[in-house]
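Q: what does this look like with zinc ion bound?
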Amino acid sequence: MSADSALVLFSGGQDSTTCLAWALERFAHVETIGFDYGQGHRVELEVRPRVIAGLRSFEGWDSRLGEDHMVDLTVLGKLSQTALTQDVAIAMQANGLPNTFVPGRNILFMTFAAAVAYRCGIKHIVTGVCETDFSGYPDCRDDTMKALQVVLNLGMESRFVIHTPLMWIDKAQTWELAQSLGQEALIELIREETHTCYKGDRTHRHDWGWGCGTCPACELRASGFERFTAHSATPEPGP
Ligand code: ZN
C-alpha cells in the first residue's frame, strides 16, 4: 500500500474538483473515481474528463494524475425513489430530509472507492463531503465518515485514511481554498467546467458557473460565491 498515493472521489462538481486539487498538492500519485448511479444530472459525468484535462495544465499536476476509474452503480438509481434519480420535484420530506437525499449513496461510494484503492494499493481516500452548510445529508457527516473508515479498515484488513478537506468549511471557504491551491486559473476552471446543478442545466451561465440558479445545489454554490467575491474584493482606499 503506497503512503504517497490517493484516490479522490470525483463527481465533476465544485467540491470534488477542489478536493482533487487539494490532493494533487499533497500526494505524488493521485487517481480519481466516479460513479454512474443513474443521476438525472448526467451532465456531471460529461464534464469530468474536461475538468481533469484542465487540471493537467497546472504546474506539477499532470505527472501526478493517474487513472480515472468509472464505476457503474446504476442499480442504486433503480432502487432509489429520489429527486436525483426519478423525475419528481425537489421537496422536503416528513423526516426532515430533502428528497434529493439518495439513501446509501455515500456509504456505497466509499465502499467501492475502498475496493478500488485496495486493488491499486492506495492508502489515502479523499472525499468532498461537508457538514458545515450542507443539504442535511446524514451520510456527509464527520461521524459517518469516521465510522466508515473503521468499518472499511476492519472489513478489508487495511489502513485506509479517509480525508475530508471540506468537512468544516463553508461554500465561500471552498472557493477560497480553490484560489489558494490554483489561483485565478483554478477558479476559472471551476466556474466554466464543473457542474453542480441538480437539474443538469448547462444553458444558464452565472458568475459562479452553469446551472438553473434555483435548485438547492445552485443556491448553495451561488451564495458561497457571492460571499467569496465580497470577501476577496479589494476595499476602497480611504479618503
Ligand atoms: Zn440548479
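Residues 197-199, 201, 211-212, 215, 217-218 surround zinc ion (CB under 6 Å). The domain at 2-233 is CATH 3.40.50.620 (Rossmann fold).
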